[in-house]
Amino acid sequence: MQQQVREHVPALTGVLTAISLALVFSAALGYVPRTLVPAAPEWVVRAIPHANALISLSAIGTISLGWYWIRRGRVRTHRLAMVASTGLFAGFLALYLYRLVLLGGPEPFPGPETVYQFVYLPLLGIHILLAVVCIPLVYYALLLAVSYPVGELGRTRHPTVGRIAASLWLVSFSLGIVVYTLLHVVY
């Protein structure tokens, strides 16, 4: 299995990316019927953004620790941190998509129009762009990590792609927290 993954990392990255983006954009654009997901009490739906903010903060921590540990040669703890980061991101995404489907799309910005146009939209746009760019980079780095022995990973593109993915992931999660703050704390 590892050998098959190793031989098809770019193709698998493309397929996983296409499936992921199709899910995200179909939910965001309201193409996923609400009947496909179980209903939830209103308090659960209201709690999701707060839970996702905590997940995002945790992911910032695990990504940072993973980076720290790999720079010190602690491969095993790096791997644990990056697996945790991936799990946190998957949890974030599942909750986010669930809420999007239940609400029929993203919620409107409740603040003033000038803040919406000149602060919120640019931050949201950069956050979304980075999140979209991160998806194939993270898949690529993960697929390399699971298909090569640790001793060979340094000779693949894993260190370079992983560094780029982690950087963009950190910025995207950070901007997501700013967007959350504007939507749920400030306004």
TrEMBL record:
Membrane-spanning parts: 12-31, 51-68, 80-98, 118-143, 164-183
Source organism, top-level taxon: Archaea
Pfam families: DUF420
This protein's record includes keyword Signal: no
Alphabetized UniProt keyword annotations: Membrane, Transmembrane, Transmembrane helix
Protein's UniProt keywords contain Membrane: yes
Protein name (Swiss-Prot/TrEMBL): DUF420 domain-containing protein
